[in-house]
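Q: How do we represent a protein-ligand complex in a form that can be generated token by token?
A: Start from the inputs.
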Amino acid sequence: MVAGNWKMYTTSGEGAVLVQDIAEELERELDDNALDVVVCPPFTGIKAVSTVVELDHLNMGLGAQDMFWEAEGAFTGAISARMLTELRCTHVIVGHSERREFFGETDETVNKKVHAVFAAGMTPIMCCGETLATRDALETDSFIRSQIVAGAAGLSAEQAARLVIAYEPIWAIGSGRTPTPESANDVTRAIRATIGAMYGPPAAMQVRVLYGGSVKPENASMFFSEPDIDGALVGGAALKADSFAAIAKAACGK
Ligand code: PGA
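Then emit the structure tokens for the protein with 2-phosphoglycolic acid bound:
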């Protein structure tokens, strides 16, 4: 899976153009059943992008960047699952580090959202990742494990198998710095093992674990060649059709 997180960039008009440009670059790859391409515009762009995906019959997933867990109610500013499924959203990013840092997201709210996304028939892309201080203290493994145990708590084994987890070291996001592919793979393998301990070996085999943080066309295939990395969550490089397409093409070879 290669998912593009557009963050707080693109108006709906710009988003419609971007998805068309991506589709043009990926004409053949979109029909490769071994590759899932997902784009995640801001809320205001979802309808326009969804219309392009539908009218052009694009084999592409459509994701939101967040969602509230309640079905409806007096929750000013919030967006529900039903509002997203109406627009044919298939995925929702949950617990991105920027949501944790700026919007008070916790492992507990992440878990509520993961459940609500599944209940609505969509696929959560649940994010985890450590700060540089945690990494320097050699506490990455235990920190990530606790994020997974709390964030993915209470699922069925079948849901756990359909979960997508994005491992995004916070210090690598938007910084141009990345862990070595081997050290990223050490963490994604530990994530898979944690899911295995919680939900059994089939779930561990099927859960998709992505790497995210400064993924570019130049480094994507190095990450994709690692055995426990099943794709990428891409931020900055997802805003240009050619660089996002180059990353998706690199994933096609996996
Ligand atoms: P980046 O962002 O690719 O710009 O580092 C990744 C992300 O935040 O999902």
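The radius of gyration is 17 Å. The chain has twelve helices and eight strands.
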